[in-house]
Design goal:
This protein has 384 residues and is an alpha+beta fold. It folds into three domains: 113 residues, Butyryl-Coa Dehydrogenase, subunit A, domain 1 (Orthogonal Bundle), CATH 1.10.540.10; 107 residues, Butyryl-CoA Dehydrogenase, subunit A, domain 2; 151 residues, Butyryl-CoA Dehydrogenase, subunit A, domain 3. The protein is built from ten helices and ten strands. Strand 2 and strand 3 form a beta hairpin. Helix 6 packs parallel to helix 8.
Length: 384
């Protein structure tokens, strides 16, 4: 049966990335989780397929496409290896897109081509020890002297932070101005006064790398500032609004992987004289799981379509991110339940998926933040 949600070109993209993910990424996912390592092998394999350039204008070395294409790619990569998808998302929908959407022509021509080819890796740094959901409270400062901005402060939970060549960093010129005093900068690997330290001990997405970033009088040229001074908050919120669509796509990939693992196990495992899948209790669980995944996919593609067509999408993006992230936790939980005791051990794929799923309701805007955004949009629409 044809997939009426996708165009022929999108189906070809989905098929090629799905085959690649199952062949190249899935077999290494368990090992990467256990070693808690970023896979350069996976990164180079994705670069050979052009995945780091998805959503980037071919004029800057990308392979083109919009948020629908990025969502399709990320879902399939996450289906194969969630940890690998985190590094790709940060590179593509956060770091590269910030430069793509807000960089000057010179910045785009300088930074994007090697990023689109996967020769350089991007990171994004907004969160701080005392500023997570309350991003307006960032303490990292940027003081301008003689054509240079000197950055001082600490960022945490920066995916790719310790391996990145280019980092989009948000800092404030005046803490009292909160959102109006923030700017965005491209910090390059090796700049003096900048140090990145890998953070260990994550519950899940262990196939990605996360870092603490420390800036001590780190000089950043004015040419590396993104947009005008004071536009940092606008830039950050614009990128997060869009990237939530991609986190929803990642969540769909996790949910799909958990559903497929549960179905395989239910078809193989026998209890009380028949296959697990023949028990009505298990059938009902699988039915709910499949319905959840399908609904989340529809919501994600709808939000991506609105974004690509230049229509209002923030409400739909937050809805997709909220529903899909909570969906993949429900589905992973039920998959583990179907596995029973075997699912509680690391040899079972659902054990890893259960842990990987947990972060999706936290990063790029918690579920609570999404509900605030949705409520405001609903109240504004009702009040018109």
């Amino acid at each position: 049966m044809p997939d009426l949600l996708l165009t022929e070109e999108e189906r070809l993209l989905q098929s090629s990335v799905r085959d690649f993910a199952q062949r190249e990424l899935a077999p290494r996912a368990q090992e990467l989780d256990q070693r808690e390592e970023f896979s350069w092998e996976n990164w180079r394999a994705m670069a050979a397929l052009g995945l780091q350039g998805i959503g980037i204008d071919p004029a800057y070395g990308g392979s083109g496409g919009g948020y629908r294409e990025v969502a399709i790619v990320v879902e399939e990569v996450a289906r194969g290896c969630v940890g690998t998808s985190v590094g790709l998302i940060t590179h593509v929908s956060l770091s590269s897109q910030t430069i793509h959407q807000f960089g000057s022509e010179e910045q785009k021509r300088r930074f994007l081509p090697p990023m689109a080819r996967g020769e350089r890796i991007g990171a994004w740094a907004l969160t701080e020890p005392g500023a997570g959901s309350d991003a307006a409270s960032i303490q990292t400062t940027a003081v301008k002297r003689n054509g240079l901005y000197y950055l001082n402060g600490t960022k945490i939970f920066s995916t790719n932070g310790d391996i990145a060549d280019y980092l989009v960093v948000f800092a404030t010129h005046d803490r009292s101005l909160r959102t109006k005093g923030m700017s965005a900068f491209i910090v390059e690997k090796g700049m003096p006064g900048f140090k990145a330290t890998k953070q260990h001990g994550k519950m899940g997405i262990r196939g990605s790398t996360t870092a603490e970033l420390v800036f001590q009088d780190c000089p950043v040229p004015e040419a590396n500032r993104l947009g005008e001074e004071g536009q940092g908050w606008k830039i950050a919120m614009n990128i997060l609004d869009s990237s939530r669509i991609i986190i929803a796509a990642q969540s769909v990939g996790i949910g799909q992987a958990a559903l497929e693992a549960a179905v395989r196990y239910a078809q193989q495992r026998s209890t009380f004289g028949k296959k697990l899948g023949e028990h009505q209790a298990i059938q009902f669980m699988l039915a709910d799981m499949a319905t959840d995944v399908h609904a989340a996919r529809l919501m994600t593609l709808h939000a991506a379509t609105l974004k690509d067509q230049g229509l209002p999408f923030i409400n739909e993006a937050s809805m997709a991110k909220l529903f899909a992230s909570e969906m993949c936790q429900r589905v992973a939980d039920k998959a583990l339940q179907i596995y029973g005791g075997y699912g509680y051990f690391k040899e079972a794929p659902v054990e890893r998926l259960f842990r990987d799923a947990r972060i999706t309701t936290i990063y790029e805007g918690t579920s609570e933040i999404q509900r605030l955004i949705i409520a405001r949009q609903v109240l504004q629409a009702t009040g018109r």
